[in-house]
Design brief:
732 residues; alpha+beta; ten-stranded antiparallel β-sheet
C-alpha cells in the first residue's frame, strides 16, 4: 500500500514538473482562414491567452513581448477560455462545482494539434487541464479557409475521481479591442420575428439570451453582428464580426466591456436552470459557435455565413424546396377531399410544383377540427379524407406536383388518446399542474420512449403513402413552462437533454429519409437557427405572411441565414394576421426574394389574379437559382428610409436579380437611387423588369456597364406605398 502511495506521489510530482517546464516557454497558436486569423498564446505560467481575431498579423511570435499595460489589480489579460477562479473575476466561460466544495478552476495548457479533416478545412484541438481537479477541457477551432469562417466548441471531461457539476459551459470566448462597438442583433415576437436593432455597447455587460426551452427564436435570435470603431451600420465598409450559435435550445451571449475598453464575448448554452453533472470519465460537448470576420462591411459578413452554411451546415446544402401551395390559410381545418383536389388542380394550373396538406387531417376519437384536440393521435380522419392520403399524393403526382403533409410530433392535446394513455410523457413539474398553451402540452423528449414515439409519428405518416410523400412540415406551437421530466433524476439536465433528444430523433429520421424535404416551423420563426438547419431543409420564417411585415422579417433573417432556407408565401387579403390589404404584385415581389409559395384558396382569386400569379411564378423560376445560391447584397435598408432593395448575384457575376419596394408614401418628387454593388464593373448587363407591362425604370430593356450600374445605379419610379419591382440582369 505504501509503495502505491509513493508511486502516485512520484507520478503527480513528475506531472507537475512537466507542466511547469512546458509552462516556462511561450507558445503561439494561429487559427487561420484565407483572410482572417485567431492568435492564442500559452504564456510563461501555462495560461492560454487570447491575443487577436481579425485580419492576419503575420508571424505570431511578434506577440512575444506584447504588453497590454494591464495593472495586476485589474485581473488577467484576456483568456482564451476563462474559468471561474484564480485571478479571473469577469464573466466566465466555465464554472464548475467540485465535490470538495472548491469553486475554482484554473486551466493550464497541456498540448495542441492541428489536422485537416477535409480539403479547405483545418482543425485545431487544444487541451487544457486543471492540475488540482484533473478537469480537462479541449478547445476545438475549425477554420474554413475559403469562407473565412471559424467555428469553436468545447469538450469538457471529468478525469477526476468524483462527480463534478458544470454551472457554466460556454462554447466559445473571443476578446476584441476597438474604440467603439456597434452591436446589431434581433428581437421580436410571434408574427414579428427577426426585427433588427443596432445599439452602441457601453461599459458593463449586454446579454442576449432565451430561456423558453423550445421556440427560442421568436423573441431573440442566437446570432449578431458587431461593427468595430464606428457608430454606423455599413453594408460595404469597415470591420464587422458576425456570430451565430448552432443550438436550438436556451442560449446566452454576453458582451462585456471591461475597464480597459476590451470587449469579451462569451456564447453558448444558457446556464439558467441547467447545472449539468459529469460523473468520472464523462464528457460534455458544447454546440459550435460560428464566427466570421469581414473588413468589407456587414454585407460580406453575411455572404461568408451564407457560403459556409450552404457548403457545410445546411442539411440540403442550399437545395431550395419547390414552389408550393399550402392549404392552411386557404382551408384551415375545414376541408374535404374535393376541396383539396380542387386546390391541387389550381396549384398545377398556376405553375406551382407542390401541394402541402396542413393541419386537420388526423384524429378519430378526437377529430382535429380545431386546435383544441387530436394532437398525439396521428390516425387519418376518414370522415374528411375517406380515400386516404395515398389518394391525395397520387392525385398531386398525376398533376405534376409533389405532395407534402403537416405534423406536430412534439405536442399533445389534453383531449387525445395519447394524453390519457401516457400522462407520464408530459413535460411538467412533479406535483404541479401541467399548464397548456394553445390547448396543448409538450412531450418529454428527454425520455427515449418519447423519442421513439416522435420518430414513429414521422415514420408512420410517411407510410400513409409509401414513397409518395415528398415534404414534411414539422411544426412546434408552444414553449416550455413548469419544466420537469418524470424520466430524469437530475431535473437541471432537462433543457439540454430535451434538445439533444430532438436532435437524436432528427438524426434517425434523416438516416431513413435522406431525400424528404423537411421544414422547421415553430409557430412561424420560433426555431430559426443553425442547429435546426443541420436537419431541416428550410424554416418557416413567420406565420405573418403580410408583405409589408415580411420586408423587415426577411431583411433580418437573411442577414444571418441564407434566403434558400426561408419560406415566403403569397397569402390572401385582407391579410389574416394584420388585416392589411396589399397589391398582389407587391406580395409576389416580396415572396420571390425567398422560397416562393402560396397560402390561400385559389378559387377566391379573380381570373386576372390567377393569370398574374402564373406569370410571376414563371418569372421566379427564371431567377430562382440566384436566390438559392447567389451572393446577397442589401442595397437599401428598410430601416433607413422609405424603400427597401436587395440583389442576388451569381458567383461568376454574369447574372443578377434586383428587388425594390416602396414601403411608405413618397409623392411625385422623390425617387429611390439604387446602386447595384456586387456587379462586375468590367461587364455590361442587359436589364429587364419582370411581371409588368409598364416598367418603372426608364432603362428597361437597355444595356449598361457594370461600372455605371455600381456608381450611378437605377432610379425606378417607385413613389407610392406598395410600388415594387423585380429586374433581371444578364451579362452581354
Amino acid at each position: 500500500m505504501i509503495h502505491h502511495i509513493r508511486l502516485l506521489i512520484f507520478i503527480f510530482i513528475a506531472f507537475a514538473l512537466s507542466l511547469s517546464a512546458r509552462a516556462a516557454e511561450k507558445l503561439f497558436i494561429s487559427i487561420n482562414t484565407e483572410n482572417t486569423s485567431i492568435v492564442l498564446e500559452k504564456n510563461d505560467t501555462g495560461d492560454l491567452m487570447f491575443m487577436h481575431y481579425g485580419l492576419p498579423t503575420g508571424d505570431a511570435s511578434q506577440y512575444g513581448n506584447y504588453n497590454s499595460y494591464r495593472r495586476v489589480d485589474y485581473g488577467t489579460d484576456p483568456m482564451a477560455y476563462p474559468a471561474r477562479g484564480g485571478r479571473y473575476y469577469n464573466e466566465p466561460a466555465l464554472s464548475v462545482k467540485y465535490a470538495d466544495t472548491d469553486a475554482n478552476t484554473e486551466l493550464k495548457y497541456v498540448s495542441h494539434k492541428t489536422s485537416v479533416p477535409q480539403k479547405g478545412v483545418e482543425q485545431t484541438d487544444i487541451i487544457l487541464r486543471d492540475p488540482k481537479t484533473a478537469l480537462e477541457v479541449t478547445l476545438t477551432y475549425t477554420a474554413y479557409q475559403k469562407e473565412d469562417v471559424i467555428t469553436a466548441h468545447t469538450e469538457i471531461t471529468n478525469k477526476g475521481g468524483k462527480t463534478v457539476t458544470l454551472e457554466n459551459y460556454a462554447s466559445s470566448c473571443i476578446n476584441l479591442k476597438a474604440g467603439k462597438y456597434l452591436l446589431t442583433h434581433f428581437h421580436g415576437a410571434w408574427a414579428g420575428e427577426m426585427q433588427t436593432e443596432h445599439e452602441q455597447l457601453t461599459h458593463g455587460t449586454k446579454i442576449i439570451d432565451n430561456k423558453m426551452g423550445v421556440r427560442t427564436t421568436h423573441t431573440e435570435n442566437p446570432s449578431f453582428m458587431l461593427s468595430l470603431d464606428t457608430e454606423d451600420f455599413d453594408e460595404n465598409h469597415g470591420e464587422v464580426i458576425a456570430g451565430a450559435l448552432v443550438w436550438s435550445g436556451n442560449y446566452k451571449m454576453s458582451f462585456q466591456i471591461d475597464e480597459f475598453d476590451r470587449l469579451n464575448i462569451i456564447s453558448g448554452i444558457n446556464p439558467h436552470a441547467c447545472a449539468y453533472p459529469l460523473k468520472k470519465g464523462e464528457s460534455f460537448i458544447t454546440p459550435d459557435m460560428i464566427w466570421t470576420y469581414s473588413c468589407a462591411g456587414a454585407g460580406q459578413a453575411s455572404r461568408n455565413l451564407h457560403d459556409w452554411a450552404r457548403k457545410y451546415d445546411l442539411y440540403s446544402h442550399g437545395r431550395m424546396a419547390p414552389t408550393l401551395l399550402n392549404s392552411w390559410e386557404g382551408a384551415y381545418f375545414d376541408f374535404t377531399t374535393p376541396v383539396l383536389t380542387g386546390m391541387i388542380d389550381d396549384a398545377a394550373a398556376m405553375g406551382l410544383e407542390m401541394f402541402v396538406l396542413d393541419d386537420g387531417w388526423f384524429g378519430t376519437d378526437y377529430p382535429r377540427n380545431s386546435s383544441r384536440q387530436g394532437l398525439g393521435d396521428w390516425q387519418l380522419n376518414t370522415k374528411k379524407i375517406p380515400e386516404g392520403i395515398e389518394y391525395l399524393a397520387d392525385y398531386a403526382h398525376k398533376k405534376g406536383l409533389k405532395f407534402g403533409i403537416w405534423i406536430e410530433p412534439e405536442m399533445v392535446n389534453p383531449k387525445s388518446n395519447l394524453a390519457k394513455k401516457h400522462p407520464e410523457w408530459i413535460v411538467k413539474s412533479p406535483g404541479r399542474e401541467a399548464t397548456t398553451t394553445r390547448n396543448q402540452w409538450l412531450l418529454d423528449l428527454c425520455n427515449p420512449e418519447v423519442q421513439d414515439f416522435v420518430f414513429n409519428v414521422f415514420d408512420e405518416t410517411m407510410q400513409l403513402a409509401v414513397n409518395k410523400i415528398d415534404y414534411i412540415k414539422w411544426d412546434c406551437n408552444r414553449h416550455v413552462e413548469s419544466f420537469g421530466s418524470s424520466f430524469l433524476r437530475e431535473q437541471s439536465k432537462f433543457y439540454v437533454d430535451y434538445i439533444q433528444g430532438l436532435y437524436s430523433v432528427l438524426k434517425r429520421l434523416r438516416a431513413k429519409y435522406p431525400d424528404v424535404i423537411v421544414q422547421s416551423c415553430s409557430s412561424g420563426g420560433g426555431r430559426v437557427d443553425y442547429g435546426a438547419l443541420n436537419y431541416f431543409d428550410e424554416v418557416w420564417t413567420s406565420d405573418n405572411t403580410e408583405g409589408l411585415s415580411r420586408v423587415f422579417i426577411q431583411y433580418g433573417t437573411n442577414m444571418i441565414y441564407p434566403a434558400c432556407t426561408t419560406g415566403s408565401h403569397v397569402s390572401d387579403v385582407p391579410n389574416h394576421q394584420t388585416n392589411n390589404v396589399t397589391p398582389l404584385k407587391f406580395r409576389f415581389d416580396i415572396a420571390s426574394a425567398g422560397r416562393l409559395g402560396m397560402e390561400l384558396q385559389p378559387k377566391k382569386m379573380s381570373a386576372d389574379d390567377r393569370a398574374y400569379a402564373q406569370r410571376a411564378i414563371a418569372s421566379y423560376k427564371r431567377f430562382r437559382d440566384l436566390v438559392e445560391q447567389g451572393d446577397l447584397y442589401r442595397l437599401v435598408s428598410p430601416y433607413d428610409g422609405d424603400h427597401y432593395a436587395l440583389m442576388y448575384v451569381s458567383k461568376d457575376k454574369t447574372r443578377a436579380v434586383v428587388f425594390a419596394y416602396c414601403i411608405k408614401y413618397q409623392g411625385r418628387a422623390r425617387k429611390p437611387l439604387i446602386r447595384l454593388y456586387g456587379l462586375d464593373k468590367d461587364k455590361s448587363y442587359s436589364i429587364t423588369e419582370l411581371n409588368t407591362d409598364t416598367p418603372s425604370f426608364w432603362g428597361d430593356g437597355q444595356t449598361f456597364s457594370g461600372q455605371w450600374l455600381i456608381n450611378q445605379g437605377i432610379n425606378p419610379q417607385l413613389v407610392k406605398i406598395y410600388d415594387s419591382g423585380i429586374w433581371y440582369l444578364e451579362a452581354k
